[in-house]
């Protein structure tokens, strides 16, 4: 019998010592067993074999599984459907034979930067946690249905921590999957969710199985002034391809230029016989604030330096006064973008988004300054205070009130006879270019900060304004876009978004015990690599305590084999650049099956040829081109058995047109920027149409409805039942202390309020009595 299966052995030396043999032959999702070492072997032939650790007849293994009650009845169908073969009864070969088995060499150590997991050539979905928004439906009540989602996280004792963020959605999602919240100090936590920029130095400490929702220096795009300056810099290098932000000035450093700009604008308008726009030709925003706070308008006529405070940087940008209107209301779009790698760039746009409408009709001649903000600003946080704001409380309507889904907005645009999918391609284009404009900074910071390829991911909220020519303009990029769920549409969209995002992040399924036992050795190995960059990885020493634990030799396993595995395992944990690149390639392939409703916009068919002329030179690694070759070209070659279609070839390959690839790229960027010239796909030159047609087809994902007729959706996040609100001891203590502090604060406030209360006049007091 040929067993073409990769078998995972999880065993606990402690248990073996106690003679309670618990050696189980399992798939990766079984790794919740209490164990401290995993050994992985690959077999091709399994005749006449016996268990290498226990020397017991193989039928016992099934017994163990049953005895331990580890498997729900329908476990295999539910969780392992995508595994190639899980054969619990497959016999195995003695370990001595195994060592000489050529197939065992095919098993790679420390693959994908995920130490102890996914060591096979083929990384599989089931090595990582699968998140589902359905889990939230059950977390408020004790039921078998909720266990289906929580049991794996609970058994593996997976943890998360939230720092400078109190997002209820993240907490609910993690608890719904059995994650335990731990205190900020916990060094071995699985997911770290940050609500503010993290210091680069902290990122150096990330372990390969940990995931952090941030890249170093991503503030280059999330701070308003830095974003505009980075795009402006790219524009000065690559030209009009980056013409998607309004003219801008940053005070106080550009005060002089700003004054000149105001004068020029006034002069131009007067010469053309026009009138200055109401409320202003320029909009002024504090660079560090959010939710529309501190925004005001400045017109060249009324403008004086008195209006603009000198302290603190302000972004003064040209007011886009011809927005596309929906039922006569201005709107902006919130587009969710996930980045899983900056160099090479790998980014995804979520197919569901939001359109936020101003609560009062658009009018540039209005003179009531009071309602200005409800006409010209589209922030939800501002408009919800307007008396005319209509909340979308509907369970299934996507275009009701002043918050719509992206799909509803695009369907509206289509009904007006416009090309909504081409609009989405243009939005994707500005997203890719914005990320490329900071690629150099992030890549440089990542080289010195990130040790592993898969530890970081980030979700950005892109705010986009669309003008009457259907040209998208980038207003700003949010570091941690709001995940508040205060309407059914919000809950529906954002829970799916976060589930898909965490799936993209690929959280490895590793038992806390394994993590705890290997952490000291890895830390040491990481520190010594830091001290001596050129040190020979094979010489890395193990922490004596950890080595002792790891070297407890299980029955039947040769000491030499075990030692070799431990040392090489710990030593090769920090990948070199080439290894990192290989890990990224595998991760991108893995993400393909886990992206949910995310659309990968870079790299994709034909993308490298179009964007390479507007990409900065980041050295000789050429990761972007190589990733494109690995992930796109090779796949296409496989699919078309040797034939690569012209539209999918890389920059160096020729296309079906006679145009040179650089001219094609120029034309592509012209199409993306010139909306009046190319309003629909039919107007786009055939050479470019050939390239973007598959992207255009994919863009139909954006126009789909997210709700279904007759379905009802939860209007709020569920309350997590207390038994599922798992917290580590230190975290629980932290919350206890906080609770007491809050109560004290409230008491103090109440006392202060009482003290400040005006004394009740004697006559009134008497009346009251
Ligand atoms: N250049 C512009 N032209 C026209 N309208 C603009 C411009 N810049 C901003 N706005 C309007 O002002 C609103 C707020 O701008 P912006 O999103 O940059 O500020 P914010 O305070 O950071 O908001 P957020 O809460 O989204 O972080 C936008 O939603 C948009 O409607």
From TrEMBL:
Sample GO molecular function, one term: ATP binding
* UniProt-annotated stretches for the region Disordered: 638-657, 748-769
Q: Which InterPro entries does the annotation name?
A: TTL/TTLL_fam
GO BP annotations, alphabetical order: microtubule cytoskeleton organization; reproductive behavior
Catalytic reactions of this protein: L-glutamyl-[protein] + L-glutamate + ATP = gamma-L-glutamyl-L-glutamyl-[protein] + ADP + phosphate + H(+)
- Compositionally biased residues, Basic and acidic residues: 748-757
The record's Gene Ontology cellular component field reads: ciliary basal body
SUPFAM superfamilies in the record: Glutathione synthetase ATP-binding domain-like (SSF56059)
What's in the keyword line of the UniProt record? Answer: ATP-binding, Ligase, Nucleotide-binding
UniProt lists compositionally biased (Low complexity) regions at 640-657
The protein's matches in PANTHER family, at most eight in alphabetical order, are given as:
TUBULIN POLYGLUTAMYLASE (PTHR12241), TUBULIN POLYGLUTAMYLASE TTLL5 (PTHR12241:SF145)
Family from the record: Belongs to the tubulin--tyrosine ligase family.
Q: What is this protein called?
A: Tubulin--tyrosine ligase-like protein 5
Its source organism is Caenorhabditis brenneri
What is this organism's lineage?
Eukaryota, Metazoa, Ecdysozoa, Nematoda, Chromadorea
């Amino acid at each position: 019998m040929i067993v073409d299966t990769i078998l995972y052995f999880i065993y606990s030396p402690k248990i073996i010592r106690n003679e309670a043999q618990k050696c189980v032959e399992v798939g990766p999702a079984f790794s919740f067993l209490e164990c401290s070492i995993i050994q992985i072997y690959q077999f091709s032939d399994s005749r006449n074999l016996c268990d290498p650790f226990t020397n017991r007849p193989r039928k016992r293994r099934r017994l163990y599984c049953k005895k331990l009650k580890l498997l729900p009845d329908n476990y295999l169908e539910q969780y392992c459907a995508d595994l190639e073969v899980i054969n619990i009864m497959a016999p195995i070969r003695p370990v001595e034979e195994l060592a000489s088995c050529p197939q065992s060499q095919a098993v790679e150590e420390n693959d994908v930067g995920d130490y102890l997991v996914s060591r096979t050539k083929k990384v599989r979905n089931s090595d990582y946690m699968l998140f589902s928004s359905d889990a939230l439906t059950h977390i408020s009540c004790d039921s078998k249905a909720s266990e289906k989602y929580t049991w794996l996280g609970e058994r593996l004792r997976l943890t998360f921590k939230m720092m400078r963020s109190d997002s209820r959605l993240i907490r609910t999602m993690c608890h719904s999957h059995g994650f335990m919240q731990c205190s900020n100090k916990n060094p071995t936590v699985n997911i770290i969710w940050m609500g503010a920029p993290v210091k680069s130095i902290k990122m150096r400490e990330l372990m390969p199985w940990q995931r952090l929702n941030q890249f170093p220096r991503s503030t280059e795009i999330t701070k308003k002034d830095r974003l505009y300056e980075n795009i402006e810099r790219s524009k000065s290098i690559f030209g009009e391809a980056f013409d998607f932000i309004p003219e801008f000035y940053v005070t106080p450093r550009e005060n002089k230029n700003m004054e000149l700009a105001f004068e020029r604008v006034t002069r131009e308008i007067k010469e053309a016989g026009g009138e200055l726009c109401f409320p202003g030709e320029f909009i002024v925003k504090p660079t560090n604030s959010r939710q529309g706070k501190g925004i005001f308008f400045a017109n060249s006529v009324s403008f004086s330096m008195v209006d603009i405070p000198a302290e603190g940087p302000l972004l003064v940008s040209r007011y886009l006064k011809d927005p596309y209107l929906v039922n006569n209301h201005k709107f902006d779009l919130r587009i969710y973008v996930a980045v899983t790698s900056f160099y090479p760039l790998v980014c995804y746009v979520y197919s569901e988004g939001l359109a936020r409408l101003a609560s009062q009709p658009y009018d540039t001649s209005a003179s009531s300054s009071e309602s200005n903000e409800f006409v010209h600003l589209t922030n939800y946080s501002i408009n919800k205070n307007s008396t005319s704001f209509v909340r979308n409380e509907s369970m299934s309507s996507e275009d009701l009130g002043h918050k719509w889904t992206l799909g509803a907005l695009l369907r509206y645009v289509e009904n007006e006879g416009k090309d909504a999918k081409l609009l989405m391609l243009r939005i994707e284009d500005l997203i890719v270019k914005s990320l490329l404009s900071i690629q150099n900074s992030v890549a440089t910071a990542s080289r010195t900060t990130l040790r592993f390829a898969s530890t970081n991911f980030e979700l950005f909220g892109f705010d986009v304004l669309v003008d009457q020519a259907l040209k998208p303009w980038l207003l700003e990029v949010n570091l941690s876009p709001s995940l508040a769920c205060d309407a059914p549409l919000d809950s529906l969209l954002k829970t799916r978004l976060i589930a898909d995002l965490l799936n993209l992040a690929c959280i490895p399924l590793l038992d806390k015990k394994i993590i705890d036992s290997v952490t000291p050795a890895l830390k040491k190995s990481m520190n010594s690599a830091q001290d001596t960059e050129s040190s020979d990885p094979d010489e890395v020493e193990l922490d004596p305590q950890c080595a002792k634990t790891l070297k407890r030799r299980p029955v039947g396993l040769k000491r030499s084999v075990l030692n070799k595995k431990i040392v090489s395992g710990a030593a090769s944990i920090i990948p070199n650049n080439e290894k990192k690149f290989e890990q990224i390639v595998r991760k991108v392939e893995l993400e393909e099956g886990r992206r949910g409703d995310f659309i990968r916009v870079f790299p994709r068919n034909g993308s490298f040829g179009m964007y390479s002329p507007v990409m900065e030179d980041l050295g000789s690694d050429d990761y972007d081109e190589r990733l494109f070759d690995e992930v796109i070209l090779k796949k296409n070659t496989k699919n078309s058995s040797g034939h690569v279609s012209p539209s999918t070839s890389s920059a160096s390959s020729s296309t079906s047109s006679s145009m040179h690839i650089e001219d094609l790229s120029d034309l592509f960027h012209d199409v993306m920027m010139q909306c009046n010239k190319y309003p629909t796909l039919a107007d786009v030159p055939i050479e470019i149409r050939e390239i973007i047609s598959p992207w255009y087809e994919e863009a139909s994902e954006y126009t789909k409805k997210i709700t279904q007729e007759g379905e009802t959706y939860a209007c709020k996040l569920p309350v997590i039942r207390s038994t599922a609100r798992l917290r580590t001891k230190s975290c629980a203590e932290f919350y206890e202390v906080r609770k007491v502090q809050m109560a004290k604060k409230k008491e103090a406030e109440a006392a202060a309020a009482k003290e400040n209360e005006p004394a009740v006049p004697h006559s009134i007091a008497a009346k009251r009595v």
